[in-house]
Amino acid sequence: MAGIDKILSSIKESAEAEAAEVVKEAEAKAEELIEKTKKECLVYSVEENAKSDKKIELAQKRYNAQSEQAAKLILLNARQNIIESALENALSTIEKSEPKEYFDMLLKLLERAAGKGEGELYLSKEDIDRMPSEFAVAAAGIGAKKGGVIKIAGSKPDIKSGFILKYGQIEENYTMKALFEENHDRLQDIVNSILWG
Q1: Are 119 and 149 a contacting pair, CB within 8 Å?
Q2: Using the 8-state DSSP alphabet, how is residue 28 labeled?
Q3: Which residues have C-beta within 8 Å of that of residue 95, sequence separation ≥ 6?
Q4: What is the spatial distance between Cα 196 and Cα 15, in angstroms, rounded to a whole number?
Q5: Which residue among 66, 83, 118, 133 is least enclosed by CB atoms within 10 Å?
Q6: How is residue 158 annotated by DSSP?
Q7: Category of 171 on φ-ψ map: left (φ > 0), alpha (ψ -120 to 50) or beta
Q8: Which stretches of the chain are assigned E, i.e. beta strand?
Q9: Strands of 162-167's sheet, edge to edge?
Q10: Which pLDDT band, with edges at 50, 70 and 90, does 138 fall under?
Q11: Is 188 exposed, middle or buried (0-12, 13-18, 19+ CB in 10 A)?
């Protein structure tokens, strides 16, 4: 039996040694796998952080561009409002100017508008009420100089300032509102250059 015990003991030692070797190899492989996984995780983490950083950077650039665009639009709208307010103030100033200055300006407009034939000049009721007596004479003189006749025909409710000159069925609108609307873009450019060079 001693021989069998020896054989069994040898087998056991050999199995234990082999098992220890297998365990040692498995532990080494496991450690290697853990290290490899750690490295892969680190690489993945760095890549994902870089992607996240890029996403954050792109989002920041997009936000900055949108903010700049919004600021430009706000500034543009503010400038536009200032220009429109300046034009409204200019129109109001003309309408409220002293009679002599105001009606002298109307005579200059009438010189441009007058033509041959019988012209009827329509003003606002307020302008007829404050019209200097020499205005009708000066208007008639302009008509005669152009080879026609111009007479004050009365008022129209849709006129606030300026005038409408009518030759037969043709009306020429020289109300201040119409003149400002017709020249709106040009007036905007003038105000813009005055305010912001």
Answers
A1: yes
A2: H
A3: 102, 160, 161, 176
A4: 96
A5: 133
A6: T
A7: beta
A8: 117-123, 148-155, 162-167, 170-175
A9: 148-155, 117-123, 162-167, 170-175
A10: very high
A11: middle
Question: In degrees, to the nearest 5, what angle opens at C-alpha 102 toward C-alphas 120 and 124?
Answer: 45
- Give residue-wise pLDDT tens across range 99-128: 999 899 899 999 988 888 899 999 999 999
Rounded to an integer, the average pLDDT of 166-192 is 86
164's CB contacts (< 8 A; 6+ apart) are 121, 122, 156, 171, 172, 173, 174, 175
Burial tier of 135 (Cβ tally within 10 Å: 0-12, 13-18, 19+): buried
Q: Is the confidence at residue 72, as pLDDT, over 90?
A: no
- The reported pLDDT for the residue numbered 18 is 54
- Cα 56 to Cα 53: distance, rounded to the nearest angstrom: 5
Over range 27-41, report the average pLDDT: 70
**Please, is 102 exposed, middle or buried when counting C-beta atoms within 10 Å of its C-beta (0-12, 13-18, 19+)?**
buried
